[in-house]
Amino acid sequence: MVRHFREARTWKRLWPTDNSLRLSMEEAMYLNAEIGILHVYTGNCQECEPNILWKKFYGRYGIRFVKRYVTYRHFRLQGWVVRSGLHCGVDFMLYRDGPEYYHSSAAVRIISAGGERSVASFIALNRELNSMKKTLVEVLVLIPEDCEIPSISCIHSISIIHTTALTWKTSDDR
């Protein structure tokens, strides 16, 4: 019990008290590289160019960052507001105009090509999302073998395929 109180106090100390905005790495990369409205600086007060920022994120998070960023960018370019989907067990949630105006419309899960997927977990996730009136969108990120991933210019040769999972409810058909 005492341990839980200590952990809670630690989290409270770490939580921002200045109401500052916290961005995900995908949001930061997008605002820096695509829109050019975010400037990121190193500890030496030197500005990080998009390619340097890309290398830092890729160096730290690997191919997972690349897949997440390409997916994030794809949906942002289509006009969606993209937020974390951690609370629903997916990579991202898609909003029409933003979380302050509407509930999310869809949940995005990034899948691996040729990877084993559990049918039971897919059905459970799809059913849970359907009960919350969300559509499950599965995204497969296709990275060519000759793609130079350590450079941000690689995003132009990466493509994605997305499929939407729909559930037919027999109770609605009666």
From TrEMBL:
Residue ranges constituting the tRNA intron endonuclease catalytic domain according to the UniProt record: 65-141
PANTHER family cross-referenced by the UniProt entry: TRNA-SPLICING ENDONUCLEASE SUBUNIT SEN2
The protein's Enzyme Commission number: 4.6.1.16
GO CC annotation terms, alphabetical: cytoplasm; tRNA-intron endonuclease complex
GO BP term, pick one: tRNA-type intron splice site recognition and cleavage
Example of a GO MF term: tRNA-intron lyase activity
Name used for this protein in its record: tRNA-intron lyase
Catalytic activity: pretRNA = a 3'-half-tRNA molecule with a 5'-OH end + a 5'-half-tRNA molecule with a 2',3'-cyclic phosphate end + an intron with a 2',3'-cyclic phosphate and a 5'-hydroxyl terminus
Similarity comment: family membership: Belongs to the tRNA-intron endonuclease family.
CDD domains for the chain: tRNA-intron_lyase_C (cd22363)
